[in-house]
């Protein structure tokens, strides 16, 4: 007899506002990041409604704007999205806190107006950056091949000045493996204490570097911060514009005892 599997509740809804990205990172897994199309807000409403009416709805969940660069959609897009989500929740007698908006950005375009948007709409912020400039700029460049580290740090400075909390996802490339202490020191010296590490991997059209495969060996990278599990959500939206994720007894569990320093993204 096949064992019964229980699914849910949905805790994460990943939504791609646009496939377009202003950067050209060499390890990016998205094949259509030159596509400037934008998600119709009617599709967003339908996706949120599907979650709310499904048997897997269990209360609060995160709506993660991700894949492509979310800040390539205009501020007005997020203002309208928040209003539409609010109306859906109000119509069902649910509190506004039911849907927690979050986005993952390269931070290169964050300014005062975007900070206003984050605060006004209650959007949590995640920043993608790969530590110090010599590692970050080796892979995360503009479409003209120019470095982006300085622009990311300007965006982070805006968040810090406005006291907007944020977290970082850092991709560990082959050349990063010899610089664990340098990476940790960089984040600590800049007051960035909430960091998740993703290993560079094969996704979509991106070939895995031979050096990475040989040196990684399937084990977790470790440093002064201890071992790290890849942050969730980053590769989840590589194909569909909308994806939902929840808990399932069929999924392999994370380690039962997490160290005190471990903070999931």
Q: Largest sheet, described in full?
A: 7 strands, mixed
In terms of per-residue confidence, which ranges show pLDDT below 50 for 5 or more consecutive residues? 208-240, 247-265
Measured by DSSP, the beta-strand proportion falls in 15-25%
Trace the largest sheet across and list its strands. Answer: 6-5-4-3-2-1-7
Strand tally: 7
Tell me the overall shape: globular
Q: Which keywords apply here?
A:
265 residues, alpha/beta, 7 helices, 28% helix, disordered C terminus
List the helices and strands and how they pair.
Layout: E1 7-15, H1 41-53, E2 61-65, H2 75-91, E3 99-105, H3 112-121, E4 124-128, H4 133-136, H5 149-161, E5 166-172, H6 180-189, E6 195-199, H7 210-216, E7 242-248
Could you explain the architecture of this structure?
Helices cover 28% and strands 17% of the residues. It is of the alpha/beta class. Strands 6-5-4-3-2-1-7 form a seven-stranded mixed beta sheet, covered by helices on one side. Strand 5, helix 6 and strand 6 (195-199) form a beta-alpha-beta unit. It is globular and about 50 Å long.
């Amino acid at each position: 007899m096949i064992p019964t599997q229980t699914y849910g509740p949905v805790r994460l809804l990943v939504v791609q506002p646009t496939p377009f990205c202003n950067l050209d990172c060499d390890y990016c897994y998205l094949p259509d990041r030159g596509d400037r199309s934008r998600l119709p807000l009617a599709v967003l409403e339908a996706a949120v409604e599907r979650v709310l009416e499904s048997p897997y709805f269990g209360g609060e969940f995160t709506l993660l704007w991700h894949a492509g660069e979310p800040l390539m959609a205009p501020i007005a897009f997020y203002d309208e999205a928040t209003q539409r989500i609010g109306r859906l929740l109000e119509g069902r007698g649910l509190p506004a806190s039911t849907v927690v908006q979050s986005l993952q950005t390269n931070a290169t375009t964050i300014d005062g107006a975007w900070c206003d948007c984050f605060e006004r709409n209650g959007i949590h912020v995640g920043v993608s950056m790969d530590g110090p400039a010599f590692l970050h700029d080796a892979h995360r460049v503009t479409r003209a091949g120019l470095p982006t580290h300085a622009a990311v740090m300007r965006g982070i400075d805006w968040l810090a000045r406005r006291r907007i909390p944020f977290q970082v996802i850092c991709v560990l490339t082959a050349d990063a493996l010899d610089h664990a202490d340098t990476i940790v020191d960089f984040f600590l010296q800049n007051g960035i204490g909430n960091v998740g590490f993703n290993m560079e991997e094969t996704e979509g059209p991106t070939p895995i570097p031979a050096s990475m495969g040989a040196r990684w060996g399937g084990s977790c990278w470790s440093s002064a911060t201890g071992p790290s599990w890849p942050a969730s959500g980053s590769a989840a939206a590589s194909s569909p514009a909308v994806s939902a994720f929840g808990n399932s007894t069929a999924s392999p569990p994370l380690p039962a005892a997490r160290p005190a320093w471990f903070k999931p993204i």
